[in-house]
Amino acid sequence: MEWTIQELAARAGITSRTLRHYDRVGLLTPSRIGANGYRYYDATAVARLQRILLMRRLGMGLPAIAGVLAEEVDVCDGLRAHIAQLEGERDRIDRQIRSVRHTLEALEAGAEPQMDVMLAGFNDHYEEEVVSRWGERAFRAANDWWHGKTLDQQRAWKRAAEDLVAAWVAAARSGISATSEPAQALAARHVEWLSRIPGTPTADGDRERSIEMVHAIGDMYVDDPRYAGMYEDATKAAFVRDALQAYARTRM
Prior knowledge:
By secondary structure, this protein is mainly alpha-helical. The protein has three domains: 2-72, Multidrug-efflux Transporter Regulator, Chain: A, Domain 2 (Orthogonal Bundle); 76-147, no CATH class; 151-251, Globin-like (Orthogonal Bundle), CATH 1.10.490. It is 72% helix and 4% strand. The protein has helices at 5-12, 16-24, 43-57, 62-71, 75-108, 115-118, 127-134, 136-147, 151-174, 181-194, 201-204, 207-223, 225-228, 234-251; strands at residues 2-4, 32-33, 39-42. Strand 2 (32-33) and strand 3 form a beta hairpin. Helix 5 packs parallel to helix 8 (136-147), helix 9 (151-174) runs antiparallel to helix 10 and helix 10 (181-194) packs across helix 14 (234-251). It is elongated. The N and C termini lie far apart (62 Å). Residues 115-123 have low confidence and may be disordered.
């Protein structure tokens, strides 16, 4: 099966002039040129054009596209990479749709939209951190789960989180040790709370990685200023860390 340059241009939504330019710069040559001087393109050429157009839509310039195609050994590997890029773009757009829908629903209900939800998909500022620590699937699962909640469900979850933080602060103020039964009961409650977040090792039932995660979260509550302030001061944050890590060592 072959197509003339006019047929291919019409199907691809570009001009014949563009196809001729791609030929001149070495991006896409015709499969053959007929005796009449017409350019013809076969299925392999069309597949290459598809990839060129995909990379153009991703904002790549022609020299960069040429470099990708020149370095590529296996066409199927290249197509798989494009599928992964497109799926990532689709996920980003889905998150943006959910964010805008959240804003609309909140405004229609006379409520104030939450900034972190409104900007989800536009600025997922924890994505790199979560992906590097727990993997892409963990981020996507947790992110989709959170942004799939209604406004009321998100508020209920935040209230539960605030109640847990308040319980930790009260326990730390009381002067009990991090290894005491009340502190360890709070640690168990905290781990159970984490297990309700899809994509986390605790939700997956992965004991070894769950222990690693609880240790890492305990350190994060002390070391990361974004979280340390939740527990009022460094001493109380250290109490939470010590209780969680003791629980992970002895009861998980």
